[in-house]
Amino acid sequence: MSLENSLVLGRYRVLWLLDQKKLSRSYIARDESAEAFGSPVLIKQFMHDLGDQDAPAMHALRDEMSALSHLRHAGVVSLLDYGVLGERLVTASAHAPGASLSVLCEYFARRQRPFPPHLAVYVVRRLLQTLHHCHTREARSFVHGRITLGCIHVPASGEPQLTDFGLASLEDVAAEAESQLGFFQTRLSFAAPEVTRGETPTVRGDTYSLALLLYRLLAGSNPFRGQSIPETLQRVLQLTPAPLVMPEWEHCAQMNAILERALSKDPALRHQTCLELSDELSNLQIGTYDALAESLATLVRSNSNGDWRQIARLTRSVSKSQPPRELRGSQRLAGALESAPAFVSGLLTAQPRSVSEHTVRDRENTEREQLRAKRRRKRRMAMLPTVLLPAAAIILGLFLGRLGGAGAVSSAPPARGAAAVTAAAPPTAADPLVISAVSVLQAQLRECLDPNERRELGSKVELEFGAGGQLSEVRLWPSELTQTRLGACLLKRAWDTGVSAPAAMSLVIPID
């Protein structure tokens, strides 16, 4: 059941579907509570069938989710709320524009390039420090137990964050049904060997998973991922990953030594804390945290697959509005807003079904605009022989006639069908060169003639040029001709040619 356009957990209005996977759906929503009205929120609906709500595993899941709602750290995506709808878990988390680490890996894979080693070390070190804080909290410590590429979110700030805390407990509730479907393959390939044997996730298991994540970034693949769950389990329990081969990286040998210990099958031989592994990797880090964060942020902004302008627009729209009157109290209204419009703060109701669809739509619009521009260029090139060249010939003929006929005067009237020319200057514009050039324009005007169309004999077009030689007026004779199809065509042709003259003059062009 889709959650779009519904109010969930009593305060979050779901706007559109962001992503859909086999066991979860992600939505963009808006907080409609008075204290945080308009804030973008990520809603996740998990497809796990939770079954008996009174089972001990369900009580443990609720207890962990309740504790996680109080976990606040810059490296953790904050859990704002949770609930069970139709025997399925729904969570609400703080939302920041960015991309998952898996998206960044796909970017480098498409270009057949390795993930930059200095950024890989930076990402894993920041995550190790975040996990160390979670492992050693005084109030209540947390072990993630389910680290994969997909649960690492990199916001636009370039500071990587961990998501999906508590999902290890959620999957334990529905483990029997899901293991039969084979959806655990990715999780198992990143899990420590002792976890695949059924042991409880520990600090050393999280350390192992992050070390394997580092290996995955540098090598481009997970060596333990098999074609099936049995093959994956066998690799996790028995396979020793091959050393990294990166001749262009001077710290490759030192990295292989660190990973050999961190990926040991025996938990006692590994780094005992995340901080211990982070300190050992510090010798391989190049650059300051701020510089590396900016480099990663640039990578995220250029490769994010979401249209984050929609999120910015959402925030700007609601910042200019006020919460509904019903929301100005401190109470949460679970049912009062069910009849309210989904976009009460000025957003367009025609939102895309998903952010990825919106991005595809933008890309298609850009491609169509580029195609239109290409067609316009072709049309302009096609105009060169049909319009521009004849017009240039006319202008050149007029200019040459003006110069060549400076000392010649023709007293004989032009022959029938030729252009009659008069000028305010000496009658040099009646030079045969001028008449020859104007004949090109006359031929274009005659293209408007229809043999089956009746017209009055002696029809003509009069062109009046101003002092600067620009065309200032076009007259038709007889005047009734302007009300016909022929007159409209003649006027359009005369103006479209862009003809000009060397000086002020009048041209009379018969069209019989």
Overview of the structural elements:
The chain is an alpha+beta fold and 512 residues long. It is elongated. The model is unreliable at 176-183, 305-309, 315-359 and 404-429 (pLDDT under 50). The longest helix is centred in the last third of the chain and has 50 residues, at 355-404. Strands 1-2-3-4-6-5 form a six-stranded antiparallel β-sheet. The protein folds into three domains: 1-97, Phosphorylase Kinase, domain 1 (2-Layer Sandwich); 98-303, Transferase(Phosphotransferase), domain 1; 384-510, no CATH class. 42% of the residues lie in helices and 14% in strands. Helix 3 (117-135) packs antiparallel against helix 8 (203-219) and helix 3 (117-135) runs antiparallel to helix 11 (274-281). A hairpin with a 5-residue loop joins strand 8 and strand 9.
Output the keywords.
six-stranded antiparallel β-sheet, alpha+beta, 13 strands, 14% strand, Phosphorylase Kinase, domain 1, Transferase(Phosphotransferase), domain 1
Any chance you could write out the topology, listing elements then pairs?
Blueprint lengths: L6 E2 L3 E9 L3 E8 L8 E7 L9 H13 L10 E7 L2 E7 L3 E3 H10 L6 H19 L16 E4 L5 E2 L4 H7 L1 H7 L3 H6 L2 H4 L6 H17 L9 H10 L13 H11 L11 H8 L7 H15 L5 H11 L35 H50 L15 E4 L8 H15 L13 E6 L5 E7 L7 H12 L8 E6 L2
Helix pairs in contact: 1-4, 3-8, 3-11, 14-15, 15-16
One letter per element, helices H and strands E, the order comes to: EEEEHEEEHHEEHHHHHHHHHHHEHEEHE
Instruction: State the CATH architecture of the largest domain.
Output: Orthogonal Bundle
- Terminal CA distance reads 76 Å
How many beta strands in the DSSP annotation? 13
Biggest pleated sheet: 6 strands, antiparallel
Helix content: 40-55%
The average pLDDT score comes to 75
Q: How many individual domains? A: 3
Under CATH, the topology of the largest domain is which?
Transferase(Phosphotransferase), domain 1
Characterize the overall form.
elongated
The largest sheet has its strands arranged as 1-2-3-4-6-5
Give the CATH superfamily of the largest domain: Transferase(Phosphotransferase) domain 1
CATH class of the largest domain: Mainly Alpha
Low-pLDDT windows of residues: 176-183, 305-309, 315-359, 404-429
**Structural Rg:** 38 Å
- Put simply, the count of helices is 16
Q: Could you say which structural class the secondary elements and strand pairing correspond to? A: alpha+beta
Strand content: 5-15%
